[in-house]
């Protein structure tokens, strides 16, 4: 099966990358900046790569409007790695020993809580597990601790398709936000959180680099057991180069940031993302075959989950959608159903093509 054009890739991650970015990387692959070599082949401490590194930080700070009081770290290990790195760097700030609060709204925030249990008390503030993670617990039901070092939450649950519409208000508590799957998809007030972190493989570029935005006053509080590679203070002091950084992923992230700036920045891309999500959800809501089970207030603009009311049609739907050039619509194995991830790089045309296919499939079912 071949296509004259690129397919529309709805994968949850690694996910689609802007074609313009891929073409630039392709053109520069063998001879980057006239050096006769690839960017991935030069020293990470060379003048040429350090220029890339500094520009990546500058562009990300511009796109996210990150204050100077925050450090930007470019690390490895993904969000899973930071599930350990965060408690090792912050949990010791608990008033009565290592402790953190966790708001569990899906599989990823629960994974974060379970990992943190290795380093101290991981207190469950609230959970929507009994609602199959189709909503976010009401604010007045949260059992917040007075002695926890921070409150951890996942801004967008990739598997369940649940997203916080706004940053939670938690008073003077330190707020840690996992923004792996909605980073740069909408405007966020960085000053409302102490730590913002996420992998690059959804809205930025290929996997490999993990972004941690942390208030500078929170550096230097790591536990004694913290490996150097997870110690934010040491990484900040060494330009995120305690070990060899993922140079090609950083370069690709930089191309992604340039592309986003060219589109008009986060404010413009947020409007596009809302348009794409509205188009898909509006169709699902009027359908007799498809359904979305997430509370409408908390539907993700990045990961639209849906189910066929007649699940005996699932295999036919997936095989026919793939033949139509619509890839990776199967839902996560833990959730079932279908999932269309419509990150920044997914064009409106891709969502239109998906809706047209879904409409035609429903007509023929």
From TrEMBL:
Isomerase among keywords: no
Residues carrying N6-(pyridoxal phosphate)lysine: 202
Protein family membership: Belongs to the class-V pyridoxal-phosphate-dependent aminotransferase family. SerC subfamily.
Binding site for L-glutamate: 45
Annotated ranges, domain Aminotransferase class V: 7-353
SUPFAM superfamilies linked to this entry: PLP-dependent transferases
Localization, UniProt: Cytoplasm
Pfam families linked: Aminotran_5
Cofactor note (record): Binds 1 pyridoxal phosphate per subunit.
Keywords linked to the UniProt accession: Amino-acid biosynthesis, Aminotransferase, Cytoplasm, Pyridoxal phosphate, Pyridoxine biosynthesis, Serine biosynthesis, Transferase
Protein known as: Phosphoserine aminotransferase
Cofactors (names): pyridoxal 5'-phosphate
GO biological process, one term: L-serine biosynthetic process
The keyword Calcium belongs to this UniProt entry's keyword annotation: no
Residues the entry annotates as binding pyridoxal 5'-phosphate: 108, 158, 178, 201, 243-244
Pathway assigned to this chain's UniProt record: Amino-acid biosynthesis; L-serine biosynthesis; L-serine from 3-phospho-D-glycerate: step 2/3; Cofactor biosynthesis; pyridoxine 5'-phosphate biosynthesis; pyridoxine 5'-phosphate from D-erythrose 4-phosphate: step 3/5
Listed HAMAP family: SerC_aminotrans_5
Gene: serC
Transmembrane segments: none
Alphabetical list of InterPro entries matching this protein: Aminotrans_V_dom, Pser_aminoTfrase, PyrdxlP-dep_Trfase, PyrdxlP-dep_Trfase_major, PyrdxlP-dep_Trfase_small
Gene3D superfamilies (UniProt xref): Aspartate Aminotransferase, domain 1, Type I PLP-dependent aspartate aminotransferase-like (Major domain)
E.C. number: 2.6.1.52
